[in-house]
Amino acid sequence: MDIFEKCRNYTAAREAMAVGLYPFFSEVQSCLGTKAVIDGKKVIMIGSNNYLGLTTHPKVREAAIQAIEKYGSGCTGSRFLNGNLDIHVELENRLAKFMNKQAALVFSTGFQTNLGGISTLVGRNDSVFIDRDDHASIVDGCRLAFGKVYKFRHNDMADLDRILRENQNSGGKLIAVDGVFSIGGDIVNLPELVKVAKQHQARILLDDAHSIGVLGERGSGTASHFDVEDDVDIIMGTFSKSFASLGGFLAAEEDVIHYIKHHCRTLIFSASMPPPAVAAALAALDIIESEPERRERLKHIYTRMKKEFDALGFDTGNSCTAIIPIKIGENETTFRFWRALLDNGVYGNTIITPAVPPGESLIRTSYMATHTDEELDQVLQVFKMLGKKFGLI
Predict the structure, then answer these.
(1) pLDDT per residue over 96-149, tens digit each?
(2) Overall domain count for the chain
């Protein structure tokens, strides 16, 4: 059989395109924070992870420009060989201090961070335990690891405890879990997870991609939010959300970071973060530390939107962060709802099976500290109108 036969037989996306209901790879002609131009139409953006609204911040923009002028546009090599700039090291030192860890290590993307970190740490005689709703980068990191992989029910620490007890002789143990789950917007029950981990001598890797900048007294994420920073062994973060850039990092004790630095294939064999991305992340970190009012404004916004959506009668699940899912149902209905949103000046993200179980497709909405009350009012009006039209409320 021709290996390309599966490609020719794949028709689902083209069928959706043909009827104008294809919600992916939308062409964005302009994006100025809370507003974007998509397919030539100005819309309110509620499909971005730009939680603090820093992608357009003057300090972030200027830092990126200055970095290009000093270092050029890229490093053309890995950190391991010729691509290790002084600003990479500066960012790592700043992040280690910010996350209250001994050391940090930056990667070119967040996906590479989990992919490399997990597959490097989990050897043949080890095991990794993951939440069924963990991000794809954690799942794929486990696929690359030589150790055994076990899944526990979503945010169910009793089930995690059961699986650990059943596999107590499974070598070194790593629990890898999201801090804020990227589809549902709910927060991991970290205090209970810490208790279970200690009972079974398991280490914890916490993916805080959607938490840093959003949760915690200083904006340093889920462990800070629950005051268990010393009990979480490795914290993973990304620069593509609150940091308004691109890349990722791990923060942990120095020995762990040193080992990963010298064994991680996704670090050693990838070109390093380009200078403007590093500089943008550094500038964003300055703002996260110096402007807590952005985090407070964001919390006010997502608390209000969750309350308003629930009052209208939408099913928003257990969200308690800036990610608020609006559950629709079947895939085709979700496609049509997304198209109607776009036609009415609102852009959200379509999440369908297999990313969610059959019959549980949804519109994933997410919010920025820079959204105005007027924009939020308009979003609610559109959802109210369409919710009634589609029989959802």
Answers:
(1) 999 999 999 999 999 999 999 999 999 999 999 999 999 999 999 999 999 999
(2) 2
Cβ atoms 376, 346 nearer than 8 A = no
Task: Answer for the pair 230, 190: CB distance below 8 angstroms, yes or no.
Answer: no
Catalytic residue among 241, 306, 327, 371: 241
182 is known as an active-site residue: yes
**Residue 359 falls within a domain, yes or no?**
yes
Q: Does the annotation mark 245 as catalytic?
A: no
CB 385 within 8 A of CB 343: no
209 — phi, psi (to 5°)? -55, -45
Residues 135 and 265 in one domain: yes
Asked which of 28-32, 45-49, 179-183, 328-332 is least confident by mean pLDDT, the reply is 28-32
Among 210, 225, 306, 327, the active-site one is 210
Residue 32: the pLDDT is 74
Question: Can you point out the beta strands (E) in the chain?
Answer: 28-32, 35-38, 41-45, 103-107, 127-131, 148-152, 173-178, 203-207, 234-238, 248-252, 323-329, 346-347, 349-351, 361-366
Query: Within a domain: residue 4?
Result: no
pLDDT band, residue 281 (cuts 50/70/90): very high
Note whether 158 and 223 are same-domain residues: yes
To the nearest whole number, what is the mean pLDDT of the chain? Answer: 97
Q: Are residues 267 and 301 in the same domain?
A: no
Active site residue 210: yes
Among residues 182, 211, 224, 270, the one annotated as catalytic is 182
